[in-house]
Write a structure and sequence with these properties.
Length: 428
């Protein structure tokens, strides 16, 4: 099964907590603090694996969580770092942030690697909070939380040449004749339901990769048929071979088909229209009137497409000529990466610990509630039943500017300050 899109949840590891410990040895009854730091949490890393060709592995496993850092220990022992979680993806994978659909990274090279989420930093042990006036701190720093993200993995095939055209015009037959690919071939529409890749390695021709892109019909850019699912695979191709059925046996006009497909390319992405095209009038062996091809060629030339071939994939007539022309043109077309505009690129928000203050008026006193991630982290780091720890707690609130903000809001003696489950009376 060909899977080219998958939504997954990823989370990096939390950092280990710092330890609260004191040196206790024979003849050293009052040793100093010796709590070690916590280990760093594991990161989430995406890495290209050239042996994978679809996103099938993500069909059933959709949650990836890295290892947490180990907590610090006594005797200044540092916690072990959590292992990084390396997720292998196919070459040509684009990673998007699920909610905004903006691009985080493009993994299109053989050895590409990207650190998607970094593990949380380990917390400091109590020995790091020792000062001349605070010689026995009974508190330590908790580890930083890991980051989490919902992402969409989107595979865009890496091919030098893309075959496009309406269904049943002979693209799969052409691919099978020029490569070792074995696409499904039959005389009905939408025989090909997944992209097929093949390597063209003809005599005297530099090998190149060719992809048969299915499902592109009128309205494909709006999601009609299978077009929207597979139009993305054309974006990475350097050259397009546009195949039409010149025989007209199905009652279709080859020139109208040619124009309609190019309109769909333009609607999907304007830059695709400017991509070099070789126009191939296939099924020429079934052509009843040579004037039909000449008329088609003239109209296509007037639109600015000068490379037009009459071909029969079934009989291999002119197949080699098309391949040689494609190889020649590829030599002059540079390999370029996927262009990502500033509007399309995802920029992660800087992670900050914040707070907000709200006031509840009372008859005898007012209560000021300080809430937010900053409060959660601070309270997890201090021991409110220890005098030294409370002094550190007071210092942090002062340095953060919370007391200044409370005074600006009109707090007075006797009012209560509430931080989660911890409440105290405010005194000037």
């Amino acid at each position: 099964m060909f899977i080219d899109k998958a939504k997954v949840f990823v989370k990096s590891g939390k950092g280990g907590d710092g330890a609260v410990s004191f040196r206790r040895e024979k003849y050293v009854p009052l040793g100093g603090p010796d709590g070690g730091d916590g280990g760093k949490g594991g990161s989430i890393i995406l890495k290209v694996d050239t042996g994978i060709t679809t996103l099938m592995d993500f069909k059933y496993k959709r949650k990836f969580v890295a290892e947490v850092g180990e907590n610090g220990g006594e005797s200044k022992c540092y916690g072990k770092d959590g292992k990084d979680l390396v997720i292998m993806v196919p070459m040509g994978t684009i990673v998007r942030e699920a909610e905004s659909n903006k691009i985080i990274c493009d993994l299109s090279e053989k050895d590409d690697e990207f650190v998607l989420l970094r593990g949380g930093k380990g917390g400091k042990g109590n020995c790091k909070f020792c000062t001349p006036t605070r010689q026995a701190p009974h508190f330590a720093e908790p580890g930083m939380p890991g980051e989490e993200l919902n992402i969409v993995l989107e595979l865009k095939l890496l091919a030098d040449v893309g075959l496009l055209g309406f269904p049943n015009v002979g693209k799969s037959t052409f691919l099978s004749m020029t490569t070792k690919a074995k696409p499904k071939i039959a005389n009905y529409h939408f025989t090909t339901l997944k992209p097929n890749l093949g390597v063209v390695a003809a005599e005297g021709v530099e090998p190149f990769v060719m992809a048969d892109i299915p499902g592109i019909i009128e309205g494909a850019s709006e999601g009609v048929g299978l077009g929207l699912e597979f139009l993305r695979h054309i974006e990475r191709t350097r050259l397009l071979i546009h195949v039409v059925d010149i025989s007209g046996l199905e009652g279709r006009d080859p020139f109208e088909d040619f124009v309609k497909i190019n309109e769909e390319l333009k609607k999907y992405a304007v830059k695709l229209v400017d991509r070099p095209q070789i126009v191939v009038a296939n099924k020429a062996d079934l052509l009843y009137d040579e004037e039909v091809f000449e008329d088609f060629k003239k109209k296509v030339n007037e639109l600015g497409y000068n490379t037009v071939f009459k071909m029969s994939a079934a009989t291999r007539d002119n197949v080699d000529a098309v391949i040689k022309e494609a190889a020649r043109m590829l030599k002059d077309i540079p390999i370029t990466g996927l262009e990502i505009s500033d509007e399309e690129r995802y920029i992660p928000e800087e992670k900050r610990f914040t707070y907000e203050i709200r006031v509840e008026k009372g008859e005898e006193f007012d209560t000021y509630f300080v809430e937010g991630s900053f409060v959660d982290r601070l309270l997890s780091a201090v021991n409110v039943h220890d005098a030294d720890s409370l002094r550190y707690f007071h210092k942090v609130l002062t340095n953060k500017g919370i007391f200044s903000e409370l005074r600006e809001l009109g707090i007075k003696d006797g009012d209560m300050v509430n931080l989660n489950d911890f409440e105290f009376e405010y005194l000037l």
